[in-house]
Amino acid sequence: MNIWTKISAFILLSLTNLGAQAGNFTVSSVNISMPSRQPTYALTITNESADEPLSMQLDTFAWSQKDGQEVYEASKDILISPRVFNIAPAASQIVRIALRNRQDFSTEQTYRLFVKEIPSEKPLEEGGVRVALQMNIPVHIVPAKVERKALEFKYLKLPDGSFALSAHNPGNVYVKAVEVKIIDTVTGLSLETAPPVIQVLAGATKVYPLATASAGAEPGKTLKIQAIGEGLLIDQTVTFDN
After folding, report:
1. Confidence of residue 102 (pLDDT cuts 50, 70, 90)
2. Is residue 147 part of a domain?
3. Which residue, 22, 46, 87, 242, is the most exposed by fewest CB within 10 angstroms?
């Protein structure tokens, strides 16, 4: 069954003595996955406005995680047709997306598709504010042989004295973990308010600063990290060694 997930990109600003104009569009997917042997996809963008046309532009960026941070770099690996277009009121546009060079990858290739509204040149009323909207959609080129593995966690003390959770992905596809808990194995109490969602790309390491300081953390302290990740139950015991 083909279940479409539509995310509205409509934002309404309510400002004292100011009007606002913004587009209103939906897309047929918020996470694109394409097999490396047939990396093509059809994305539908719909103009939800009944009376205003919409101008759109799509761009792709290579997506990686380096030094624990998200990195986006301009890329021509993904073909988009059409890339720039207009959508009439209450109409839709199908956009074809494909990988330029097809090959069997051993590791998942990841990109970000930016779906951006081109601001209208229509004059605004006095004091009006024009809002151009943009969506950022993950694109995954999945290898033929998937080796999904549980994230490997470390509990760290950063140079500024704050604490962080480090997550390494040893598999060849991304893993998203939810319901992350950090537990003191002696008391059974949760030490931190952990990140609600952790997503780590294949072979990468992501560092998540933790808002709450752990006064009880000390060298040799044993902690349990629990999470649910892409069908994997993660339950690891780590030693705080900073």
Report:
1. confident
2. no
3. 242
Is residue 30 in some structural domain? Answer: yes
- The CATH number for 170's domain is 2.60.40
Shared domain check, 162 and 69: no
For residue 65, the enclosing domain spans 7-142
Please indicate, yes or no, whether residues 126 and 12 belong to a single structural domain of this protein.
Answer: yes
Q: Of 142, 164, 195, at which residue does a domain stop?
A: 142
Write down the pTM of the prediction.
Answer: 0.79
Structure tokens at 43: 């994305």
119 lies in some domain: yes
pLDDT in tens, 20-61: 334 588 999 999 999 998 899 999 999 998 988 999 999 999
